Amino acid sequence: MSFYSPGETAEKSGFSIDTLRYYEKIGLLSGIARNASGRRVFSDDDLQWLEMLRCLRGTGMPIAEMLRYSELARGGDETVQERLELLQEHDRRVEEQIAELRTRQEQIQWKIRLYSGTLCEGLPA
Amino acid sequence: MSFYSPGETAEKSGFSIDTLRYYEKIGLLSGIARNASGRRVFSDDDLQWLEMLRCLRGTGMPIAEMLRYSELARGGDETVQERLELLQEHDRRVEEQIAELRTRQEQIQWKIRLYSGTLCEGLPA
DNA sequence: ATCCCACCTGGAGCGCACTCCAGGTCAACA
DNA sequence: TGTTGACCTGGAGTGCGCTCCAGGTGGGAT
């Protein structure tokens, strides 16, 4: 079991120190330990939790919903069902998101081919 | 060739009327016709352009870059090369975006399986 | 004639998710 | 002993992309 300074944690988690502080303030991070002089000390568990937060944020989950998830996580075993449903619902939205991105991307690629064609036409034979 | 009121255009394009006005104001939409009483009249061409804008916005292109693209589009044939490069670069970013979403989604799905497992264990035999 | 409704304008306001700042503390190193 | 640098706090500020508002106009139905 290792411990990490805010700076290390920022680097490992990909969140800025300011964001870590912000997440603690709003309740996305709870029970972060402090050393004798009041500085934050992050554990491996904290890092794992941050990785989860990264997955959720990185797939577009709004902070408010992540907050809900954190509350459930704090609630222990009784909330597993609810957490499961929340993640499944989110997973569905991510799927849709990817599908829409693909569709839009195809249209953009179509346009790219069109432009490429235009350029070729202009070429000397 | 048909013409469309702002309301129709909003419905067809998926942008709100306010957003259409905003886009015209900042220069993403140019040369939108007006009728005798000053109201906007959108053409099929405008609608096609809006569809393109939707693709770009919907895949996360920032307004500033769309503005760049619009300027190029107004520049005529000489800018085809540049437009091509812009779209290709964007296409690359969309690809990355999708890849990251997939990675994150897999981690979330792993978590979902974990929760499902937890629930099954608790089941009576 | 009057009412309504869709539209017009310039400009203010909003929600989100950070990000920055001023002023302070503490530990380590020169 | 002084300086540096990483960290602390509460709170203000930022950037983006809209979204809303007040006050006004014009055209068609009643």
Automatic annotation (TrEMBL), chains A, B:
It comes from the Bacteria. Keywords: DNA-binding. InterPro entries: DNA-bd_dom_put_sf, MerR-type_HTH_dom, MerR_fam. SUPFAM superfamilies: Putative DNA-binding domain (SSF46955). Residues 1-72 form the HTH merR-type domain. One of its GO terms (molecular function) is DNA-binding transcription factor activity. This is MerR family transcriptional regulator.
